[in-house]
Design goal:
By secondary structure, the chain is mostly helical. Helices cover 73% and strands 0% of the residues. The chain has 3 domains: 67 residues, Alpha Horseshoe (Serine Threonine Protein Phosphatase 5, Tetratricopeptide repeat); 87 residues, Alpha Horseshoe (Serine Threonine Protein Phosphatase 5, Tetratricopeptide repeat), CATH 1.25.40; 119 residues, Serine Threonine Protein Phosphatase 5, Tetratricopeptide repeat (Alpha Horseshoe). It is globular.
């Protein structure tokens, strides 16, 4: 398969069909033939992050940084900030996000990068510096991307998120499941002060179970997340529906899968509505296409 076609195939697999593992594999095939290609290294790092493999992403970003020719890819510094946030290396993350902000000329991810710098300070115990960055972030950048929209919603919330749950969230995003489990196991029921914290705790437990292929436990915890969320505007329940749909689809139970994908679409005004709705619609289209195919 030609170079460009392989990369387009990887993008389609990862961002449209949500088969990120296959997308990463196709980028690896490109890199086997073109190990210093900057576009392939950049795409590989982005897909590795999407596939919850921040260690691989960091390796690819380091290789990308060694290639000095061509136009600068400042968004790679944003990705590096994400990776270091996942790794709980907060000062390194701040440096990467600041580099991105200093040189990137666009508006997308600027609000999120400022918010994430503040978040890194907060997670690192520097509350005064964190509040200063949060104040700056409220008045800078646009709310076009979902990352920026989530940042804006978080900044508008009078209460900061639960510290340990937040650390666990980013560890899960990076594929550091043992670390995330240890953080969650260290949380006592009395530490969960709000309904949001209690539901997020269930949801994070479900994500770890799902990522570590404990599917029965993941289904149980996702269902509890949905039941306890009610009609709250948090993204935990709609994404729990989406993930249940994926589990049942992998188990070839398309009826239950379609039910949960449709349920995901019913939630309104949550932080990740555009992406969750898009993924649910794509999965439903795939199920409907299967139904129309003639059986042998």
């Amino acid at each position: 398969m030609p170079f460009e076609s392989n990369l387009l195939y990887a993008i389609t697999k990862s961002f449209i069909l949500q088969e990120t593992g296959d997308g990463v594999q196709h980028v690896h095939e490109v890199l086997n033939e073109y190990p210093t290609n900057r576009l392939a290294l950049f795409l590989g790092a982005a897909l590795a992050i999407k596939n919850a493999n921040s260690e691989e992403a960091l390796s690819l970003l380091d290789r990308l940084g060694e290639q000095r020719s061509g136009l600068p890819l400042y968004y790679a510094d944003y990705l590096r900030g994400e990776v270091y946030l996942h790794k709980a290396q907060y000062l390194n993350s701040i440096t990467a996000y600041r580099w991105f902000i200093s040189y990137y000329k666009g508006q997308n991810y600027i609000k999120d990068a400022h918010y994430k710098i503040g978040l890194c300070y907060w997670l690192n115990g520097n509350v005064m510096e964190a509040e200063l960055l949060f104040k700056q972030a409220r008045n800078i950048g646009k709310e076009t991307t979902e990352a920026d929209k989530y940042a804006a919603r978080s900044l508008a919330d009078a209460e900061r998120p639960h510290l340990q749950l937040t650390k666990a969230r980013y560890s899960i995003d990076g594929g550091y499941y043992q670390e995330a489990s240890a953080m969650l196991n260290g949380i006592e029921p009395a530490d969960l002060k709000t309904d949001r914290d209690k539901i997020e705790y269930l949801y994070r437990k479900a994500r770890i179970a799902h990522k570590t292929k404990q599917f029965a436990l993941a289904k149980e915890l996702y269902k509890k997340t949905i039941d306890q969320s009610g009609d709250a505007f948090w993204y935990f329940a709609p994404n729990a529906c989406l993930q249940l749909g994926y589990i049942f689809m992998d188990e070839n139970d398309d009826t239950k899968a379609a039910f949960y994908f449709k349920e995901a679409l019913e939630y309104k005004k949550h932080e990740y509505k555009n992406s969750i709705d898009s993924k649910a619609k794509s999965a439903l289209a795939h199920i409907n296409k299967k139904k129309k195919q003639p059986r042998n």
